[in-house]
Amino acid sequence: MVAPAPAPRRSIARVLPPSPAAAAVTMLAFTALLYAIEAVDQITGDDLERGGGIISRHLDGLWGILWAPLLHGSWGHLLANTVPFLLFGFLAMAGGIRQWVAVTATIWVVSGLGVWLVGPDNAYTVGASGVIFGWLVFLLARGFFARSARQIGLAIVLFAIWGSVLFGVIPGQPGISWQAHLFGALAGLLAASLVARADHRVGPEPLGA
User: Is the pLDDT confidence value at 205 over 80?
Assistant: First the structure.
């Protein structure tokens, strides 16, 4: 009988993606897509955002959950989201691309559903800020769930620099979807918990002789 080796802790200890160059290219390509979509939206007179935004409590507005994070209300809106989108998305790939896709999908859908359920009447909501808030809270929380000193250290740095943006979950700013921010943040917290549980369940295969 061969005793099993300690369980691998790949994503628990890691704060940078396993393939930083590939992660950077992925986020740059994703961001370029947002800019291309905004260019088309501007050319068509905002047809994309009007047709692809989340319209709260309207059945046809449910499609916006899929498309709204790819759309923005203006170049200024997109520019304001660009740096955190690139940075948080890159850092969220520390657990690998599969985990990143699962985390991003969770945030994307939960944030959109929250907007659809409690968003303002007679308006449409667009923008990647719900995903950005979700990634940020995921990065802030995952180290505490995983008990990873490295990830907690990164969380402290991120909070010192970006923590003030979390006030965006509070209602009151005209034209700002606090609903997307709030439900994105809650989804990021949920994703951090689920990732930590999954990592703790990872174990080696037993060997017999």
Answer: no
199 pLDDT above the threshold of 80: no
**46 alpha carbon, distance to own chain's centre:** 25
Question: Phi, psi at residue 124, to the nearest 5°?
Answer: -120, 150
More confident residue, 4 or 183: 183
CB under 8 A, 24+ apart: contacts of 45-54: 49/73, 49/124, 49/126, 50/124, 52/126, 53/124, 53/125, 53/126, 54/112, 54/115, 54/116, 54/119, 54/124, 54/125, 54/126
Q: What is the DSSP letter of 120?
A: P
Q: How far apart are CA 8 and CA 203, in angstroms?
A: 7
- Looking at residue 5, its pLDDT comes to 46
> Do residues 131 and 69 lie in contact, with contact meaning Cβ atoms separated by under 8 Å?
yes
pLDDT at 61 (0 to 100) = 87
